[in-house]
TrEMBL record:
Source organism per UniProt: Candidatus Entotheonella gemina
Gene3D superfamilies, per database record: 3.40.50.970
Name assigned to this protein: Thiamine pyrophosphate enzyme TPP-binding domain-containing protein
Record key words, sorted: Decarboxylase, Lyase, Membrane, Thiamine pyrophosphate, Transmembrane, Transmembrane helix
SUPFAM superfamilies, alphabetized: Thiamin diphosphate-binding fold (THDP-binding) (SSF52518)
Gene Ontology MF, one: magnesium ion binding
Length: 189
């Protein structure tokens, strides 16, 4: 397994200035914020399970942007009905990355059912154009480089270790500020 913060750093390194990044509640948003806070990032605070729907809407309405959805396994499981909708709409600019540590880490590490519910197989059966399962840094690097930017919708299941990182700050922007700077970023492109 790969450490989640290491995976996030590798993913963020692949993004360009026009890419839009949506990160789910909890540690994923905190680690994206600590790794590369930018106006093109939307940090979902307190609304677990809604990120893939938001990402789909953005992908359809903003085809000039590549949309990176950094989801957790618990969040993805909460919104399984969105996966076939994403696959049916087929946005070529949509990259759905599920960081799966098989736990609800932000609330105490309770086990999630992703250990037995195969999210990659679910994505494949829904009809995502490309589905990858990775568990190491090398596999992640290869998967990130495997397809051109318009090869979506893509789903990448990253098996991540529960590896708490000390000193990760909370997102310091207020929700309204996150929204406003994100919208301004989209409008300025």
């Amino acid at each position: 397994m790969i450490a989640r913060d290491e995976a996030i750093a590798a993913i963020v390194a692949r993004m360009d200035d026009t890419d839009l990044v949506l990160s789910t509640t909890g540690m994923i948003s905190r680690e994206v914020f600590a790794t590369n806070d930018r106006s093109g990032n939307f940090y979902m605070l307190g609304s677990m399970g809604l990120l893939s729907s938001l990402g789909l809407g953005l992908a359809v309405l903003s085809p000039q942007h590549r949309i990176w959805v950094l989801d957790g396994d618990g969040s993805a499981l909460m919104s399984l009905g969105t996966l076939p909708l994403i696959a049916t709409e087929r946005p070529p600019n949509f990259v759905h990355i599920i960081l799966d540590n098989e736990a609800y880490e932000s609330t105490g590490g309770q086990p999630a059912i992703s250990a037995s519910a195969d999210l990659a197989a679910i994505g494949k059966s829904c009809g995502y154009r490309h589905v990858d399962r990775v568990a190491s840094r090398d596999e992640l690097e290869r998967a990130l480089d495997a397809y051109p930017p318009d090869a979506g919708p893509r789903l990448m299941l990253v098996k991540a270790a529960i590896a708490p990182v000390e000193g990760i700050p909370r997102v310091s922007h207020a929700p309204a500020a996150i929204r406003d700077r994100f919208v301004a970023h989209i409008r300025n492109d």
